[in-house]
Structures are given as C-alpha cells and as structure tokens.
Amino acid sequence: MVSVVVLGVVLGVTGVVVSVVLLVICKMYRKRKHRHCIPSYSGYDAVGDYKPPSIMSVSTTSQDVQISKEHRTVQPRSSRGSTCTSRGSISTVSRGSVKSDPFNVEETSSISARSDTSVDSLIFDPNFGAIRPDLYPRKDAVLQQSSLEQSLGRLHLRIKYDFRTSDIVVHLIEAQDLSSESTRDAEGGFGDPYVRICLIPEVDERIRQSSVKRKTCNPFYNEYFKFPVTFDDVKDRILLFQIYDYDKFSRHKSVGEVSVDLGKVDVSNSVELWSDIQKATQFTGDMGEVLLSLSYLPTAERLTIVVLKAKELVMTGAGGSCDPYVRISLIVDGKKIKRKKTSVKRSTTSPVWNEALSFNIPAETLPKVNLEVTVLDHDLIGHGEFVGRCILGPGREGTEGQHWNDMLQNQRKSMAMWQHLHRR
C-alpha cells in the first residue's frame, strides 16, 4: 500500500517537472521565432531615430552649403518564414521629407544658403521700402513771359525755393539776342553785358550781379544766386533782373530789365522761364505818393494809421488798368506780426480810401516797431501785383522817419504826411 502511494507521488512530481520543462522550452521557442521575424535595418531611418553621419552627404563651398538626403529601402536580414515576408519590406523617410510631401522632393532636398547676404539683412534693411525721389524725376515747368512792347532780347533763367535753407534760388542761365544799341561799341562790335539781380522789397543790403561777358550779344552765365526769405513772404516779392553794358571809363549803360512776380509763379517746384527784356523805365523814380495819418493813444496802447488817398500811381500791368488797395504790415524786431488792408478802388490811379487801421502796441514795444505800407494792384487771379511801398518807423531816413517821430512827440494827435512809394 505504501509503495503504491510512493509511486503515485513520484509520478506526480515527474509530471509537474516535465510540464514546467515543456513550458519553458515552448516560451524560448516562441521568443526565438519572434526575434527572427522582426526585420533588421542597415541604417537608422525610422522617424525620430538617430541617423549616423554616414547616411547624410554634406558638401560645402565658400559660397553655398548644400545638404542632400538619401532614402533607402529597408530589407530584412533573413527571409525566413512566410510570416516575416507577409509584413513586406518597410521603407521609412526622415521628418524633413514628411513635411515636404506637398512640394517637389528635388526642390526641398537641397538647401542653398548664401554666405554674403542673409535673409535678415533683406527683411530688416532700414532703407527697404523708403521713397527715393531720384527715381521719380519731375520735369521743370517752362514758362514764357512776353512783352507787348518791342523786345530788347530774351533772358533765360530758373527759379526754385529751397525749403532746407529757406532761400529763393535763382539760376541765371543766359541772355539771347541783346539788340539794344547800347550793347554795341563805337566800332560796331558787341558790348560787355552783365546782369544785376535784386528782390523787391529788399531782404538785405547785398548786391548780386553776374560776371561780365566780353564782346557778345548772347552771353552764357550759368550762375546761381540766393535770397533769404520765408516761403510765406515769397508771394509778396518781385525778382528784378537789370541788364547793363559794362563800360570801364564811364557810367554803365542800361540795356533793359525783366521783372518776375513771384506771387504768380509756383516756386515750390523748379520753374524755367524765358522772358522778354524791356526798357528800364517802369522801375525808375517814384511809383506815386500816398497820404497817411498816424496817431498813438498811450492809455489804450493803440496805434492808428489812416489811409487817406494816393495819387499818380505808376502801374506796371500790361493792360494799363489799375484797381489799387493798401496793405499795412506790423513789423516787430524784423518779423511781420499782423497784416491789415483797405478796400479795393476800381479803375483809378488816384484812389481815395479814408480808412483807419488800428494795432494794439504796448508803449515799451514802440521803439521796435515798423509799419510797412504797400500799395498793390488787385488781381482776380492770384495775388495783387506790387506797385510800391514805404516803411514808417524809428531809424528811417527822410520823411518816413520824420513822420514817425512827429507822431511820438504829439501823442493823441493825428499827424498826416505824404509819403513816396518806392520799388525797393
């Protein structure tokens, strides 16, 4: 009975041991079989894996850097079993090629970078997008200024306002066909012409004139002149060109002159002008007279100027008609502070106004004050044409200074006096 029990135990233990051995052998067999079915790769081409440098070929030059990518088809190490082949061959690509699928592989597989110019320098260039005026040249306006009277020649010039320096820049180019007898010497040859340029009213005491051209009636100058004046005051100025014949032993002879009203010319852009030369008669002597009355009331600190009338106004317009009015400018320390003007009188050279214009001026400011009285010919188009002017104030010579001093010595009284009008 005991032997049977022992035999049963031995067989049971033996069966358990055999079962365990068989189970271990089966697991080892399955594991080995699974390892042989996994494909092996000749390189690390899977997404996210490290790729050895041998897979990439890098070629560099001094100017360009090119990077090319190689794609390989991965084959298993052994073709054992149909289970391995059923998975087929696996081909993997890098991340760069996955992102560039929508594009051409040939275009995205190479990168070219220039060493001398970077993308950042093109994007953040401070001059990029800036306007270059030199690429958009503007043609100069060419004007013709003709005379109804007999022309004594033609003057060629160019005018422009320089906003950087606040100057009127005059380019005197040439004169042509100077036909006056004064340009010929005693032997019948040509004279020695030169041009004197001034801005009316004057802005300084400088004398501006060109060089003398010898023995010619078609002098070529190509000279530049500048007049300091603010752009707001340009429209109230006239450029006067006086042509003379140089004489070494006697007084220079006048050939003629040209006047340019800057109020009728757009000098913000360069303006080229051809103008007929006229006889120098309209700017010589006085331009007429104006009767003014001055009074100062110290308690109210008010200066009143009464424009009574004018007489014998010399008009420079081609039509000969005259519609005069008077403009009074208050000048303090050389700067124009206020402007007032009278009404316009139609078709007369001896107008009567009887109009009072007042300015509030403290007593301590009177020594720094000047009154500029300007007579203009009204024009429906543009600004009025300049006729003449006078300046009243301390330090002025002649009747202009005398009239001002009489007002200061007789305050609260009206002091009337005739004043001559001048072009300068």
Question: Mind sketching the topology for me?
Answer:
Layout: H1 2-37, E1 57-60, E2 65-68, E3 73-74, H2 82-87, E4 90-91, H3 95-99, H4 105-108, H5 119-123, E5 141-145, E6 154-162, E7 167-176, E8 193-200, E9 208-209, E10 220-228, H6 231-234, E11 238-245, E12 253-261, E13 271-276, E14 289-297, E15 302-311, E16 324-332, E17 335-341, E18 352-360, E19 369-377, E20 385-392, H7 398-409, E21 415-420
What key attributes describe this structure?
single chain, 424 residues, alpha+beta, Immunoglobulin-like, five-stranded mixed β-sheet, four-stranded antiparallel β-sheet, 7 helices, 21 strands, 17% helix, 34% strand, elongated
Structural notes for this entry:
Mean pLDDT is 75; it is low at 41-50, 53-71 and 76-123. 17% of the residues lie in helices and 34% in strands. It has helices spanning 2-37, 82-87, 95-99, 105-108, 119-123, 231-234, 398-409, and strands at 57-60, 65-68, 73-74, 90-91, 141-145, 154-162, 167-176, 193-200, 208-209, 220-228, 238-245, 253-261, 271-276, 289-297, 302-311, 324-332, 335-341, 352-360, 369-377, 385-392, 415-420. The chain contains 7 helices and 21 strands. It is elongated and about 170 Å long. With 424 residues, it is of the alpha+beta class. Strands 5-13-6-7-10 form a 5-stranded mixed β-sheet, with no helix packed on it. A 4-stranded antiparallel β-sheet has the order 9-8-11-12, with no helix packed on it. It has a 4-stranded antiparallel β-sheet with strand order 18-15-14-21, with helices on one face. Among the domains are: 137-276, Sandwich (Immunoglobulin-like), CATH 2.60.40; 289-420, Immunoglobulin-like. One of its GO terms (biological process) is calcium-ion regulated exocytosis. One of its GO terms (molecular function) is phosphatidylserine binding. Residues 77-92 have a biased composition (Low complexity). Keywords: Membrane, Repeat, Transmembrane, Transmembrane helix. Residues 73-101 are annotated as: Disordered.
